[in-house]
Amino acid sequence: MKILVTGAAGFIGSDLSLRLLERGDTVIGIDNHNDYYDPAIKEARLARHASHPNYTHLRIDLADRKAMESCFATHQPQRVVNLAAQAGVRYSIDNPLAYIDSNIVGFAHILEGCRHHGVEHLVYASSSSVYGANTEMPFSVHHNVDHPLSLYAASKKANELMAHTYSHLYQLPTTGLRFFTVYGPWGRPDMALFKFTKAILAGEKIPVFNYGKHRRDFTFIDDIVEGVIRVLDRPAPGNPNWRGDQPDPGTSTAPWRVYNIGNNQPVELMDYIAALEKALGKTAEKEMLPLQPGDVPDTYANVDDLVEQFHYKPATTVEDGVNRFVAWYQNYFKV
Questions:
Q1: What is the pLDDT of residue 296?
Q2: For residues 151 and 92, is the Cβ–Cβ distance under 8 A?
Q3: Please, which residues bridge with residue 267 across strands?
Q4: Longest dimension (CA), the chain
Q5: Is 152 a catalytic residue?
Q6: Rounded to 5, what percent of the chain is helix, strand, coil?
Q7: 289's torsion region: left (phi>0), alpha (psi -120 to 50) or beta?
Q8: pTM surpassing 0.85?
């Protein structure tokens, strides 16, 4: 297939592009290479697949309407995976408009491109952060998600609503994937694992928010990419049993679905740090801090729908995943 992947120099997008190319797909990658974090790692990720004969890379911004229209008209992708977004819960507190431009305006351009060029299936990144103030565990796609706690979360919830409208009006199959704390080799420098590793090796303190009482459903990159591909290969169907008087938030009469992709095994932040300390052979100095604004204390994914419909469940243990990250980090930075 010919597949458009946005955020193709990003953490998940680069790994996904590699996997699609390996199985014989043609990939058109989009990335704006912004400096939210060090662009050098984006260039290094991209170098892994930029020279592949079936790969084309476009350095454009999703918010650039004319560039996006040209991309769809020129390349005519059959399917689209939208992973490009302004990420980060804490950054959204200080820089909200960056999320409007990328996550709302940019996503509208993706939807319009899909609508006007007969795209067979749009898969897009949502986030576990949409669960917001919901405290019913584990988080299920059949739960209400109307109380986001950050603009980042609100923008992801908005993406799900926008996609539903296009699925309903234009019969565009769309699937949203709520990712739960993705980590692994080539990860983002703004994420905890990367920051903690750098600080521990430098003998610096690591900030431990919520006094270490966070629980996160850490999900390894390989598990995420496998889930994305399985979902991409099966365009979202409508649910013929959906009822407006008893609405199911996870499905619709339209060809629209959302799924959780998480490890289904929440890990205490202190245990995550312990796994990192073991992998590095070094003890961390910890600065215990209160819960940050916009953060949720726990994430825990109910992945029953993914297991039932795609016969797939993330399975990489935190110990294995952290070891693989540390091995990559030490090789990449020569430490």
A1: 78
A2: yes
A3: 216
A4: 59
A5: yes
A6: 45, 15, 40
A7: beta
A8: yes
Low-confidence ranges of the chain (pLDDT < 50): none
Specify whether the CB–CB gap between 41 and 189 falls below 8 A: yes
By the 8 A CB rule, do 294 and 150 touch?
Answer: yes
Pure H helices in the chain: 11-22, 39-47, 65-75, 89-94, 96-99, 106-116, 151-170, 192-201, 221-232, 269-280, 304-310, 318-332
Catalytic-labelled residue, pool 152, 166, 183, 272 = 152
Cα–Cα distance for residue pair 249/245, rounded to 1 Å:
12
CB neighbour list of residue 7: distance below 8 Å, 6 or more residues apart: 13, 30, 31, 82, 83, 84, 85, 125
- 199-252 tens-digit pLDDT: 999 999 999 988 988 899 999 999 999 999 999 999 999 999 999 999 999 999
Instruction: Residue count of the chain, please give it.
Output: 335
Assess contact for 6 and 62: CB atoms under 8 A: yes
Instruction: Report DSSP state, residue 273.
Output: H
Identify whether the C-beta of residue 182 lies closer than 8 Å to the C-beta of residue 11.
yes
Total Cβ atoms within 10 A of residue 93: 14
User: Alpha-carbon Rg of the chain, whole angstroms?
Assistant: 19
Please give the distance of CA 253 from its chain centroid, rounded to a whole number.
26
Please give the pLDDT value at position 93: 82
Sheet holding 256-261, edge to edge: 55-58, 26-30, 2-6, 79-82, 121-127, 174-179, 256-261
**DSSP for 71-96?**
HHHHH--SEEEE------HHHHHH-H
- b/e for 233-248, b at 16 or more Cβ within 10 A? eebbebbeeeeeeeee
